[in-house]
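User: quick one
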Amino acid sequence: MNIFLNFASILLYLAVQCQGSGTDIALDAKATLLHRIDSLNLLIYTCLLTLTVLTIWVFKHRRVSWLHETGLAVIYGLIVGAIIRYAASTNQVTYINVHPAPDTKYNLSVPPDMLRLHFPDKMQVSSGDAPVPNKTYAYSFRGEIVNVEQNEIDLKATFDPEIFFNIILPPIIFHAGYCLKRKYFFRNLGAILTFAMVGTALSALVIGSLMYGCVQLMPASLASSFTFLDTLYFGALISPTDPLTVLAIFSQLKVDVNLYAMIFGESVLNDAVALVLSGAIQNYELRYSNDGGFEITAFLGAIGDFIGIFSLSLLVGALMGCLTALMTKFTHVREWPLLESALFVLMSYAAFLIAEVCELTGVVAVLFCGICQAHYTYNNLSSDSRNRTKQLFELLNFLAENFIFTYIGVSMFTFPKHHFDPWFIIAGFVTSVLGRAVNIYPLSFLLNLGRKPPIPMNFQHMLFFSGLRGAMSFALAIRNTVSEARQAMLTTTSLIVIATVVLQGGAATHALAYLRIPTGESGNDENDALPYRDVRSDTPRDRGEGSTGQKARLARLWGAVDSKLLKPLLTHARPPLTETLPAFMRPLARVLTTTHQYTQGDNSLRRTDSDSDLCIDEQHPIPTSIDPQQIWPGLVDTRISVEGITGSNI
Amino acid sequence: MNIFLNFASILLYLAVQCQGSGTDIALDAKATLLHRIDSLNLLIYTCLLTLTVLTIWVFKHRRVSWLHETGLAVIYGLIVGAIIRYAASTNQVTYINVHPAPDTKYNLSVPPDMLRLHFPDKMQVSSGDAPVPNKTYAYSFRGEIVNVEQNEIDLKATFDPEIFFNIILPPIIFHAGYCLKRKYFFRNLGAILTFAMVGTALSALVIGSLMYGCVQLMPASLASSFTFLDTLYFGALISPTDPLTVLAIFSQLKVDVNLYAMIFGESVLNDAVALVLSGAIQNYELRYSNDGGFEITAFLGAIGDFIGIFSLSLLVGALMGCLTALMTKFTHVREWPLLESALFVLMSYAAFLIAEVCELTGVVAVLFCGICQAHYTYNNLSSDSRNRTKQLFELLNFLAENFIFTYIGVSMFTFPKHHFDPWFIIAGFVTSVLGRAVNIYPLSFLLNLGRKPPIPMNFQHMLFFSGLRGAMSFALAIRNTVSEARQAMLTTTSLIVIATVVLQGGAATHALAYLRIPTGESGNDENDALPYRDVRSDTPRDRGEGSTGQKARLARLWGAVDSKLLKPLLTHARPPLTETLPAFMRPLARVLTTTHQYTQGDNSLRRTDSDSDLCIDEQHPIPTSIDPQQIWPGLVDTRISVEGITGSNI
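Assistant: Done. Structure below.
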């Protein structure tokens, strides 16, 4: 890197020094240089990811379990970040101080978007013999300069935080929604919603208050730079969990599906909750400073914001998902799988963008869009598109996740807006642990009062232990780093993420053993002592009809609406609407039912209607009703040709 | 759009007006607004693409052939661009003029990268009661302002041209390389290389010279702003062809594979050639102005540049492809298809980035990387990864291509740096047609002197007719729009692309009929009069061994190296190196041969070694050696479960 940059500097220097009058050419050279630096940054991350992939392979091959791929990505990122920081010390950026022109009329209190500079104007520039022609150049707003000396590092291996929210997060969150195991998710809906909604808010409040208390006890310079809203914002951003590592180990060791569903479901939803919560806190800040004191109004407004934005975003996502389902049901676009897949991807991304444009939360929209796409649209897709969308988002999710963790490592050293404050960091670590405890234990106690198979103590400990912090916390922290308080938050958040992912992730296997949480396939049949025995269902088919009594009432109500109205409307599933709707709506029902729906047998219903064959499910490999190999060994060949046909079926 | 922006302006206005001292909050609000405008831009393109996908489906369904999807994308883009241009008239950007601070020391002839503005300093800002605190803000270099009034449109639905080169083009070019039908490509290698290398250079020279002549005849103001190098650059950027539409029709109508290979192969390579050529011209400009007159040196330098950059880029791409092949051959990463696919994607993108960082041409590297990946790595991949990479790049290519054509349409109205000059546009149209003619007819004549089955006249006319211009021309034109000359080139290029894609693309079917080029499957067996009869090979298996005599000598030499050295080294193909290398290299050969390679039978060789089952090939659907349906109808079920297993095999 160092060599490249120096080489580039020399080139640029030569280009600039040798020129006659060609300012245009020098500008071209500068643009080329900037492009190469961009490419170099991308290349660094590409190489880091490649290295991560290869190391993961070695780890999987050698069955190393004490370090997960995300932990690995973070560690590689840290190493490379340190190298970039301390090895490459080129000062690329040239700058001058400017003043407004004397006759400028401008009366907003925010700085202007653009500056226009006449160059070289009256400045003395050493251009050799020929004079440099006067031209006007545009400069666009970049941000506040807090620490003037750190300007130079600005170009090194950092990205615009907007990239996280527009490019990196959507596929991760969509994939989570697309892969949510809906059966177990709905069975534990009560617990999941409690932990994710109430728990996250509670955790944010507790962390915010404790941090505010801590900050007050610290040196005055620090105390004055944090308001209560700042620490509350920190509470909101550090509350969402990202237990990737733990879940990977769960899959590997085949841990109880309900525990898996609770941890996964909670982590998916609390990302969304934290994002909306942090937005509401920022809006509160805005409103509070406007009204100048009406705290109650502002507080109620923030709660209204939270509920309104969350439910509207949910609605946008769900509607886009349902719209895609309708499109794929009532058109024959499935005859062209490429068009179908493109439509699927575009509609899902549109859900994100629509929400963002309407000042809602795109991540929440894309999450619920993913859930709807999996629940409805997936059933209408051609098998080629099913495969393609599944594999596409799996790959995107893998790359995006590892990229974000690599970036967390690298940015620890290269991001110019870090502020190391040991007191704040220590307080952050302690309160984030406390916040997780406040989320899990009291709420589990309350839940157990009304829950038939209570959440046993070792499961509670495991829930507590799964409170790793990850991508969402980091993305929220890096989004806004204008003030010193926010910069201290970013540093603390980065450190918490790194520590939890590497250390807690690495210790997950031991925690499972220590807490005596049963693992392994043998658990499916033998562990009768397990309190979840009677809700466990080992085949994806709903053999659990008998356990309906244990489902939450909400889940039961939803199940009725879903199977009688939504599924027949949005997919080719039976029974058709003509059988489920009341008599007076039959004409409408007839219009909304496809021939396919009337004519198909129960066999194909079973096939298309199953939620379970959707996602990569290492816990329950899809049972092949007929094993082709048993009937005719030559089928290995068939499999290949079937794939060939599917691939070329465009 | 208009509504959203106005609504957003009001919100921002309120936020700014109502605040007390909170400049930070106003800045937050401004950042939010900018983010929403970004999202809106993306949403516009997402909706346009969705609309395009749906319309394509309708067209395919109704068998409309007079408009291809790219033409459709352009037209939709034009309509929406016009709406944005004339309906939305909000002026979002605030700006002030600035002067350097009096004590500034700066002596470079290029404008600085950054400006630092103390705000509000001594300016009067109406912030109500509270004073606005003085802060330092950073502004980064954006570009030259040519037309001051057009500032306002800057934010509307335009993207940084760098995005084309770093994000949009690589997947398109990689896909082209990954899908190149190598058999027919190598069989027509001589013609393809002649058209792509010699022809493109010739075309650029002819167009450049003619344009320079035309410009001299025009009003003096115009003549003075174009140098010969400018027009030569125009020649280089308008020379590459992009006959997507024509090729899609070829596939549909099953036109002769050799004609297909020539047109596709030429269009793939001439993109690369034109890119390197335009770079060499720019370097020439640089060198010429440095030496101040040594034209011969500069000219030879440019030729050296061209050859050096092209072959080094080719080398980088090919090496990365071979490295991936080695990685997938000698590790067992194929046991984890997700890791394998990720590795494949990352290595391919790294090829692009390495070339860009080394000041080579990433597009050329990624093209040859794609060819190597298809030729070697593909054979080592697990069937899951084959499928996934194929489908992934197919989808990315589809989305990227349609995005670029939509953008060409929209930017016609929204891009601020257009310069409409009717004379230049007319001259551009005429010379680009002449340039294509100079490329095809004389070179075909020369080729026919030494070519066994000569290129018949109607094929030459079809080659001439396939000279549509597309993505590469546009990307090159929009890359640099600093001067008025470059802006006139962008406008002319956009118009040529739009006209050729919509009109020529629409007329392709008629052209085929008019030129009596045989179409249809019946041609496979019956058209004995066809001059290509004896090189046609209707099954992908190499039944054409007897026609080796007609292959170019280059292709034969390459074939020997490939099958005796490269394939055994890089893939699991037989014969192994132990059989092909001379005796003294046996120990080395033994190390480089896998157990798999020794043990596999000829059967599996045939399967993994076939080039033909790679890409979506509507012309030759892959023959299924055994049709599962004929043996046992219940296999429909098996197919689904096989897919399920494949998907969960991670």
